[in-house]
Design brief:
16 helices, 485 residues
Length: 485
């Protein structure tokens, strides 16, 4: 999915999106804010490269996967920039996600050891433990805030990987709440890039500024405490060791340490939480998918086995469910780039400093790449079936040298979390309630509440459900028999 695509002989078309009147000053920003997904899906009929307006600024959205790959593979020409990164840099500094092309390779080398495959195997137990902790307080028949639970889970997993146990439960909750407020505020600042609007002391702007300040203060406190304490084998420990070893001479400064932690917490927590929420929102409407996922969870985690690297490798169908969820509702759904020189794309000349956009959501819902794109079909990704990625249209983690450094970590975390929760619980929608995914800086359900039903499959050797015990608590529990696979 990350390799360069061969250039085709396609005759590219270039067009302009209609509908900026009667608000030419804000351009398509209001439409993008109110119904962004519908707006994006309407653009390909106007061309392979379509001009839109973000506020008064002109921008061009690539609607074809080949054009998107040209953008992602040529990071010298299409660098991180545009309204999205102009809003992210004050929050995330000059970290791995927001830094320019010139700094990226060095920063990636600095962080890469934390996300090596061997380390992912070490994190598997942590991921399983935190997934179990999520449902420890759940009770059968009660209403659960799934969105909040998934955000708590990913906050704990990511903070343990980056910071070991430096954050206590109360601080983890603060980080979770800060991230939720920041993500809500970032989207409107991207699609309507009019800075004066966000200096007005509205309640939303005040919430954003409070979350901004508190999030940075938490990270500063963690770094200061760690400097005075015992070294740890985590990302923060590696960054502090690099700074001490070179005494700042190699550019590993205190500010860079701060920026990298902010960056990886923000991107690592929110995106995976949105993916998990989307999985559980989709399952009730697809009972056959849910049945097969439950059957795999029961087989792989038989006898209350804790998940680890070996179990992760056997969760083939669950991984396909996660992948299809990322196709239908990619958390990273819209991105911007800026041209560093005059260039040509799709037969159109772009000036230096032009804003270019691409949307994984748009590509993932193109019927030319994915037949029946609005259907949830995990079988697309089972071994031998995954032919739909031949044109590079699946891009939940981007591609090229700026591909998400935590893609393997995120897939492992989501796959294990879904399995651990599905092994014990079935989540049902509230009667009469439909939670749609809501685009902000990320895409996914933000207020997903569901009813939890305990499901405890009867082990094959037991003749009845009598005396069944919960492997996590040891308590006697009622049994919900899963249908036979």
């Amino acid at each position: 999915m990350s390799g360069a695509l061969p250039r085709s002989d396609r005759a590219w078309t270039v067009g302009t999106a209609p509908g900026i009147f009667p608000f030419p000053f804000v351009g398509h920003g209001i439409t993008l804010f109110r119904r962004p997904l519908e707006f994006l899906k309407s653009l390909p009929v106007h061309g392979d490269l379509v001009e839109i307006r973000l506020g008064p600024q002109r921008a061009w959205l690539a609607c074809h996967p080949e054009l998107v790959h040209r953008i992602l593979m040529d990071t010298r020409t299409f660098d991180k920039g545009g309204p999205q990164y102009e809003r992210l840099r004050p929050l995330m500094g000059n970290g791995l996600v927001t830094c320019g092309h010139a700094q990226h390779r060095r920063q990636r080398r600095l962080i890469q050891p934390t996300f090596r495959p061997s380390r992912i195997a070490d994190y598997a137990q942590v991921m399983g433990e935190e997934a179990q902790a999520v449902f420890r307080e759940w009770r059968p028949g009660t209403e659960v805030d799934v969105s909040a639970a998934m955000l708590a889970l990913t906050t704990r997993v990511t903070s343990r990987a980056l910071l070991s146990d430096s954050l206590d439960a109360a601080t983890v909750a603060e980080v979770r709440d800060c991230l939720a407020a920041l993500v809500r505020g970032l989207f409107i600042r991207t699609v309507v890039p009019l800075a004066p609007l966000f200096r007005v002391p509205t309640p939303a702007n005040r919430r954003y500024r409070r979350a901004f300040a508190r999030f940075h203060a938490i990270i500063d406190a963690v770094v200061d405490e760690r400097r005075r304490g015992v070294p740890r084998d985590d990302l923060l420990g590696s960054l502090l060791e690099a700074q001490e070893a070179h005494d700042g001479a190699a550019g590993v400064t205190g500010q860079e340490i701060h920026d990298q932690l902010i960056t990886l917490l923000l991107t690592g927590v929110e995106s995976t939480a949105m993916c998990l929420g989307s999985v559980f929102s989709l399952l009730p409407a697809h009972p056959e998918v849910e049945r097969r996922l439950h059957a795999e969870a029961d087989a792989v985690l038989a006898d209350g086995r804790r998940p680890g690297p070996e179990e992760l490798s056997r969760l083939v169908y669950t991984r396909s469910v996660v992948t299809e969820t990322l196709r239908v509702y990619p958390p990273g759904w819209l991105f911007t780039r800026t041209t560093t020189r005059e260039t040509e794309i799709g037969g159109f000349r772009l000036p230096r400093g032009a804003t270019v956009l691409y949307s994984p959501y748009l590509l993932h819902h193109d019927p030319a790449s994915f037949p029946d794109p609005d259907r949830f079909l995990p079988d697309r990704w089972l071994p031998g079936n995954a032919t739909a990625v031949a044109n590079g249209a699946l891009l939940p983690f981007a591609a090229g040298s700026r591909k998400c450094i935590g893609d393997t970590f995120a897939m492992a975390e989501a796959t294990l979390a879904v399995t651990v929760i599905a092994r014990r619980w079935r989540l049902r929608p509230l009667p009469g309630h439909v939670e749609q995914p809501r685009p902000a800086a990320t895409l996914g359900p933000r207020s997903l509440k569901m009813i939890c039903e305990l499901r405890r499959p009867v082990p094959a050797q037991e003749p009845s459900a009598q005396g069944a015990r919960d492997p996590d608590t040891g308590d006697a529990c009622p049994v919900h028999r899963s249908p036979a696979p």
